[in-house]
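Now for a sample.
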Amino acid sequence: MPIARFPSLSHWGAFTALVEDGRLVGCEPFVHDRNPSPMLSAIPALVYGATRVARPAVRAGWLKQRDRERRGDDGFIEVSWDTALGLVDAELKRVRERHGAQAIFGGSYGWSSAGRLHHARTLVRRFLFAGGGCVDQLSNYSWGAAQFLLPHVIGTYAPVAGVATDWPSIVSHTRLMVAFGGLALKNGQITSGGAGEHSMPDWLRAAAQAGVEFVVVSPYRGDAPAFLKARWVPIRPNTDCALMLAMAHTLVSENRCDRAFLERYCTGFDRFERYLLGRDDGTPKDARWAAAITGVDAGFIVELARKAAGVRTMLTCAWSLQRAQRGEQPYWAAIALAAMLGQVGLPGGGFAFGHGSTNGIGNPRPPLPGPEMQMGSNPAKRAIPVARIADMLADPGAQYEFNGKRDTYPDVRLVYWAGGNPFHHHQDLNRLRAAWRKPETIVVHEQHWTATARQADIVLPATTMVERNDIGGSTRDRYVLAMHQAIAPVGQARNDFAIFAELAARGGFETGFTEGRDEAGWVRHIYATLRRGCLDQGVELAPFEAFWEQGYVELPRPSRDFVLFEAFRADPRANPLATPSGKIELFSETVAGFGYDDCPGHPTWLPPAEWLGAEAVRDYPLHLISVQPPDRLHSQMDPGPVASAHKVAGREKLHIHPQDAAARGIRSGDLVRVHNARGACLAAAALDDNVRAGVLIMATGSWFDPAGDGASSLDLRGNPNVLTLDVGTSRLTQGPSAQSVLVEVERWKGQAPAVAAWAPPERVAQV
């Protein structure tokens, strides 16, 4: 039988699904993608893998006596769809009637589907909003701190979401690119919403060939490809702000800052300058001061500041910098430093965020809309910062501060989770596990038996991208992509839209959820809306039938380079920023007025609770950095063949400097225990002199596999989030602080325990 071909899309790239006799047998990269991700090859094995949720399942203890304590340890009873949906519907109605909408948490965070119709986070919110509302989540774990800081400083968070001076401008005009946090090619495999082309490697090569000099500030040399021939600055983690402040001090003390730019385009520099010079605290923030904090040579700091002032310079910060306690400060400091250089709004100059964090940042694309499914508005008007979920579940009624306001955590009785895996991406998983036992009912849609599915009470099996029709694309990419259903659903899986449509019908609000459209109707509607939006801007896309047959449409290339804040620079009065002053706020009266000691009114060096200069190094002398993996998207595809090939006996690798390993008697390949007061995990040691001494590197995404309970438990596979700190970056933004964590590591003594996370949970025939 000939191979049938179906266009499809994932967050790691567009592809053609190859189907033989009704079975997915391969994934062929998109024809226009010059740098496809090898992760595509993992899809067939995962679609048919043993971890798939085959049928609706209910946890035995919950079904018998509404038990909460055995979540994660209990067996499941497989039931019919009618039974499962009846249970979910009854629980939703019970909780709404007794406790109101604020007792239901619309818990969906994660990348879920690249398709916009079956994007689970959109659909669960649309469903719960249409049914009366819920407690929602604000922002994301990727750049949550920046999202709420940047509007106070530059009037928008668009630059961290992907609006950046584009690569053609950098190639043509930039002479020095300083990358705080690095430019790791592995991160360029991923684009939220999927992509038709992986452009990051090509643009970096073009910049290098054009003579751009790269300086990479990171504790890991591997955060820059070798072909850049970048100067590596092995900084202590979490100290980038101090380095930037010292560069700023050099510009002031040597009269190299652009005071004309600061006067015309900025406000508050006088207050910031007093801080740099130590006028109030007696401590000048000079290079010698920063050297003691960062471990970077003082002479080099001065040299770098001088060089940046002498040529067209782009300062770019990885998203990871603001995922640390006080993570707002390096972003604000980078903006201040760029303003002092006077190059904001010039081709190839200024600041940017995320070049080293994901594919598509700086990719030239016209300012056209992307495909989108509307979620509606939330009648409950309640939401918490996304990374404060454990606080909310553990302590309902407690007050918290956020972005100038004080609020109270609701008393959540039901969690409805579709898309994402909090037992991957949240911090201090042992704390989350304890808080997760508080709600009365937890409902999860899942394709696989992840830790989140195991911790649920009702699990509804969801389809993968090749088992449904959809439309996808990213506002960072020039392709809009069709997603044809390639195979029948595996087992009894249903797509998320169909699940929610049935529940909405049972709840009496089907029309409010579906608007009278089925899957095919919504795919057409999303494309028609996109087509109208493009036509409004003078770009006519192909009719739906032609798009669907070809499998994609390609947007035109922009007619000119994009430069961030170019219009503002040309005429700041006609094009003011959306800040109170209309200018870049190097001192924010608004932020200062909140009175937060953990985020004052200008960029400030505020040491986190855990870093290599903290007192805690006496017990935990190593700083653990958790990075995005090169072989999966977060925890997606962890059981697949690509990710498995990089593990050692099913466990994650821990990159450790040979000097630190030798001091502990650790050899490459040894099984080690990484631990602190919050938890412990096992990993396989990988000696790596590309890591700064005193620093450990471990990828996130290994499926949570705890033996035991609480801080004394042991994660068997190597999930770094059993070790991370679950506190907000500051009261201003309440972002995640995953990168501020100290640990110790030791050789594991005794027999290696068996791992179990990839085995489905026990199936109980009867209660």
Notes: Residues 325 and 729 are 4 Å apart (CA to CA).
